Structures are given as structure tokens and as C-alpha cells.
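Record 1 of the preview.
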Amino acid sequence: MSSRRNNGGPPVAAERGRGAIENGAGRFYQLDAERLAYWTDGTWMHGTPAVLRGIAHDTRALRPGELYLALIGDRYDGHDFIEEAIRRGAVGAVVARGRVSRLPREWPLLGVRDTREALNDIARGHRRMMTGRIVGVSGSVGKTTVKEMLADVLGVLGPVARTPENWNNDIGLPLSLIRMRPDDRWGVFEVGMNHPGEMKTLCGLMKPDWAVLTTIGPVHMGFFNSVEEIVAEKAELFRALREDGLAFVSSDQTAFAELAAAAPCRVVRVSTGGDQAADYLLERGAATDGEMVVRERKTGASFRYIPPLPGEHMLENTLLAIAVGREAGVAPEPLADALRAYRPPPMRWQVILHGGVRYINDAYNANPVSMRAALRTFAAVGVHGRRWLVLGGMWELGRFERREHLALGREVAKGEWAGLIVVGELGALIAEGAREAGWPAERIIVAAGVEDAAAELQARTGAGDAVLLKASRGERLERVLEAIRQQAAD
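->
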């Protein structure tokens, strides 16, 4: 048995570490068992793992050689999955001391007071050891897209750690931080929230050197009374910066003044709306089709880039990535190459051709801001045939739920769509709003489920048509595509 108590300075052995090592699958950073015990004020029982390739809290995603973290939630207890973790190749587990008596006896266990607190302790300790510059990314829409673009652009300069997928909450962020290696020059981490106070806690773990805020709007309104409250919460990311940091934000945002005032450091302002004082300004009318020309205030020079995705909102997202890259020292040509090579994560404006119909799967998530942006972008995309909408509900709007869905329906009614197919109870509210705005009832279909929506599309669409699918993640609207493929195969 071995242990490390937090009773003063760190033990010398715990601070030496083992650095980066090689395995058959590639390079990884090995965590140090003694250091983990020290950080968590924990005690190792039944020995320590010889190799620690990382930490995982979900046995379904656990990789051999990782340490299993037995978290306890409102509806689950991770200690119930210890045996499964062993079968999947876990080399040990972080467990609550009160659960130890009923766990395997001959397997390395790190006993701690609270496993969720231990996760934060490990992330905090690991963050202190990292020398790479960390960039925090938040906002109401576009966080994951901007995070991915930033990581690709900064990758020109050296190794980059990034948030896997959208691990941006109180579990995902610390797990993401722990994946960063000492030789990573950059870490790009997404920060999300849906409750007041979350941002300050997460930023305290991350301790960003630079920070980027995308567009802020009425998202996660279930726990906030106004957009102003959301702005104040998001501004915590800027407040977490040091005086030598950098804060990146669009000066076109309504809340720009409040956000800029929260930063104790230089604010790098971007603009697609003509702000001549912006550090990075999109020059309207100076580009050919598909290009964007960006003027840099510091040098007075202008450079041409190609946005990786369509849409007015993507111009701002791309401009933020350009600004971060240039401030980091990436030259314009390799920066443009990185943007051209960028590929969006799945279900974010993912174009799929099936049966001559172009399906745009943008169903990863949705809120009032991103829904309207998607409608504008879809309306501007070149289509040989007709445009169809398949929409589902927007989640986490709280008492604003009915109002926002009806308003979206009225917005839909302004467009030139061949038809609107809605799925689910919240989708029905969108249909109600469209009818109230005078849209023809015969062009509105309220589907009972994804199979019905798929059948309607199969019957009504033809070669050259395009279909936009968008809803909040919980609606799983991408299943419409799965049902179409299945129905076509039958």
C-alpha cells in the first residue's frame, strides 16, 4: 500500500513524472500514480498501476491501460460498473472510500473522499504542470466549430490538445485538460454552461491564457431570466484571464462593451459589420465568390481566405480563428491552408447525397440563434430543385419554450420553402407558428416520428431537391436519414 497526503510541499518522487512514452497505438502522456494520490489527498490500496494511460469515467469509451473514475450521479453510481471496467482493460479505479468494502480486493484502487472532487483535483494539478498556452472557447453558438478551427490553425505551430467532441461541461472539461501533454504547445478547450455560476468554476480549472467568445444569444434560457444574465455568465471566461492574456470577440455583438470591459487584458476585436477600429475586419465587396478578405489593423495589410463552411455566421467564426492564428504568429498562407483543410465535426452542415436528393444534416444541436442562421444559409445555398425543411424542437428554453418555437415558425413562414416537416411536440409548436403567420397548411406536415418524416420525404422529394435537418441533440433528428436509407433498402 502507498499513499500521498497533501501536508505541505509536493513529494519529490511525485513531481518527477515519467513523461511521454510510446505504445503501439501512438504517443501518450503517462500519468503518475503517486502524483494522483497527492493531488486528491487519496490513498492507493492493493498497489499502484504500473502504467496509467489516462482517465475515463464511461466504461463504454474506456481504453486499455486507463484508470476508471467511478462517478456518482443522481441516477447512477459508477461503482456499479467496476467489474465491467476491469473486463475492458482498466488498470485501476478512483473510488469513494465509503464504497471500498464491496469492491474487488486485488486490484489497484485510489480511495478518495469524493470522486467528482477528485476529478477536479487531478485536472487542477495537471493544469499546473502544462507549459503550453491554453485557449478557452465559449459562446452561445459555434463553440465547437470555432474550437476545431482554432486547433487546426494553431496546429501549424506545433502539437495541440483539444476538447474531444464537445466535452465542455463539469465532467468533460477536466477530462479534456487531463489529456493535454507536456509537449503540447497549445490547448484549445471548449467551455459550456447551462446554470449560473458554472463558468467561473470551469474557468478556475482551465485558467486560460487566451479566450474566445462567439455569438451570445438566448440559449439555455431554462435557468436564466434574460440574455443579459447569459452575457454576464459568459463574461466570466474573460474575467479569468491574466493581464498578459488576450480576449477575442466580435465588436458587432450587442453586448461587446460589457464583454470587453470584463477582460483585464488586451481585447482583440473582429468585425464582419464594418467596424473600422477592429483589429481584424472583413472587407465587404473586396472578395470574389467564396472568398473573404481580411484587413489587419496592426499591419494595414489584407489577406484572402476561404471560409470552410457556408453562411454569414461562419464568416464571424472564421474571422475569430484567423485572428487567433495571426496573433499566435501563424503566417497568412499556412493559415489559409489550415482553413481549407478543415473538416467540420459530424452533423454540422454535413452534406449527404441520397437518391438524387441533397440532405444537409445540421442536427447536432439547435437554439433560436443557430436555427435562424441555418435557415438563412440554407436559403442562400444553390439548389437545382426545391428546398425542404425538417425541424425538431429546441431544448433548454424553460419558460421561453413556447414563445421561441412559435417565433421560429413565424420566421419559417417568411421563406420560400417547398414544405415544412416537423417532428415531436416542440416541432408541432414551430408548425403552429408557421400557420399563424399565414403559411399554407397543406405545406406543413406534423410527423408522428422520424419514420413518418422519412416516409413523407421519400414521397415528396425528387432529384435536385435539398433538405435541411435541424433540431436539438436530444431530438436525434439524424435518425430521419437512417430511416430513409432503411426504407429505400426494403
